[in-house]
Design goal:
Elements (H helix, E strand, L loop, with lengths): L1 H21 L5 E2 L14 E2 L8 E5 L3 E3 L4 E3 L6 E2 L5 E2 L5 E4 L3 E3 L5 E4 L2 E7 L7 E7 L3 E4 L5 E10 L2
Parallel strand pairs: 1-2
Antiparallel strand pairs: 3-14, 4-5, 6-7, 8-13, 9-10, 10-14, 11-12
Amino acid sequence: MSKNKSSSTVLALLALLFFMQACYEPQSGCLDVEAVNYDFSADEPAPEDCVYPELRLRFEHVYSYPDTTVPLRFDTFYLDEAGTPFRLNRFDFLVSDIRLSLEGGGSLDVNDEIDIFIEDPNQPGLLLERVILDNFGFVTAGSNRTIDVGTVTSSAQ
């Protein structure tokens, strides 16, 4: 009787394994190891689900005297090296071609793009679509001190 009982147990286990295999459904997910949400349990790629690291730059606008550093303000007078007072009305700058160099070689590059439309010089009224790399930011001192540059991915060199 124990031989018959063990045979039925083996058959039950085999049937269970057979049905477990039949119930398997592939799981889609991000399979890019550079993404912050890489899904090691996925077996079908879903690139649209991938999320990449974001690069944000913060600027501290300061004015330095020989012995101290103060926050830059537009309603304040500062002294130059000769002791002459001056005041800034506006200070803008463009940060472009942003790339972070990695210690072991390679870099982290911004990979965001912008679609722009320009008028065709040969056919007025016709707009041409151009895609440019969005690896720049515009900073106005005293106002926007943080700029979101975009997503970054590595490029081995």
